[in-house]
Amino acid sequence: MNIVVCVKHIPDPNIPPEMDGKRLKRDGVQGVLDPGDEFGVEEALQLKEAHGGEVTLVSMGPETATEAIRRGLSMGADKGVLVTDPALQGSDALTTAKVLAAAIRKSGDFDLVIAGVESTDGYTGTMPATLAELLGLPQVTFAKEIEGGESSIKVQRQTADGYHVVECSTPALLTLTAGANEPRYASFKGIMAAKKKPLETWSLADLDLGDVAVQQEIAELTPAEERKAGEKFEDDGTGAAKIADFLAEAKVI
Ligand SMILES: Cc1cc2nc3c(=O)[nH]c(=O)nc-3n(C[C@H](O)[C@H](O)[C@H](O)COP(=O)(O)OP(=O)(O)OC[C@H]3O[C@@H](n4cnc5c(N)ncnc54)[C@H](O)[C@@H]3O)c2cc1C
């Protein structure tokens, strides 16, 4: 089973983010493989262990995004591809999907594409569905467990109350929920082996793509409103009614 995992390189979420104008500062800040995408890498490795095949990591980002790919390679993935090009700076989710679709097509035959439900920094959550459409693939969202088969997969799909069981023909694209598995640590041996694994860097000129001009402009940036102190009710016997009124006013009940 050949699996492609989309991996995004993001500023370390454990460090307070810095802004560069209206965008998140990426240059000169500590970056990591998006923790949400570690679940995708782990799932792909488990499927490969059960069914054989190859795991390819694909990313689009600045040159430093190779760090995220190296991390996935040291967990056990076989090869990686980074698409980087100054013309892609400030890309929106649609441009990202167009570029990743071209890179995935170029990287060879695949049975499955795995992405996170949403990234930890941009979190539009729209890139994977756009990618599925561009690749002409069926998509299963919010996967929490995957059973691989010859020409189909069986997926447990997280819902608010439990899960759906969905069967889907392959090739397919699925988004994996955070917590679907326990991502493995990269061993010292894995880190050393990763240095010798194939990692290609492609520019826009290497991809068969038409116009991918970045069309998104961030019009305005507003800091999130500070959390207000809550309202405290003294229970003089009317506490329950006051809380019910408060919830009704907030249209919660
Ligand atoms: C030079 C350059 C600079 C960039 N600067 C920024 C920036 O400042 N801020 C920013 O958020 N993005 C930046 N990007 C990346 C790109 O613009 C975003 O990845 C894209 O807008 C997707 O948005 P999202 O994170 O909301 O996707 P979502 O839909 O929330 O992502 C869902 C899942 O899709 C996959 N995915 C998303 N993006 C990528 C990716 N780039 N590579 C591989 N898999 C991916 C991951 O599996 C992720 O978990 C840059 C790219 C380049 C080439």
CATH superfamily: HUPs
Q: Could you tell me how far the N terminus lies from the C terminus, measured between alpha carbons in angstroms?
A: 49 Å
Strand content: 15-25%
Output the CATH class name: Alpha Beta
The appropriate CATH architecture is: 3-Layer(aba) Sandwich
Given the C-alpha coordinates, what overall shape results?
A: globular
Description:
It is a single chain. With 253 residues, this protein is α/β, with parallel strands linked by helices. The chain has a single domain, classed as Rossmann fold (3-Layer(aba) Sandwich), CATH 3.40.50. The protein is 27% helix and 25% strand. It has a 9-stranded mixed β-sheet, sandwiched between helices. A two-stranded antiparallel sheet has the order 2-5. Strands 3-4 form a two-stranded antiparallel ribbon. A hairpin with a 2-residue loop joins strand 3 and strand 4. The longest helix is centred in the N-terminal third of the chain and has 17 residues. The protein is globular. Bound molecules: flavin-adenine dinucleotide. The site of flavin-adenine dinucleotide has 33 residues, from strand 4, helix 1, strand 6, helix 3 and strand 8.
Give the secondary structure arrangement, pairings included.
Elements: E1 3-6, E2 9-11, E3 19-20, E4 23-24, E5 31-33, H1 35-51, E6 55-60, H2 66-75, E7 79-83, H3 93-106, E8 112-116, H4 127-135, E9 139-148, E10 152-158, E11 163-169, E12 172-176, H5 188-194, E13 199-202, H6 239-249
Parallel strand pairs: 1-6, 1-8, 6-7, 7-13, 8-12, 9-12
Antiparallel strand pairs: 2-5, 3-4, 9-10, 10-11
Helix pairs in contact: 2-5, 3-4
This protein binds flavin-adenine dinucleotide (FAD).
Flavin-adenine dinucleotide is lined by residues 6-8, 23-24, 26, 34, 36-37, 59-62, 84, 88-89, 91-93, 96, 100, 115-116, 118-119, 121-128.
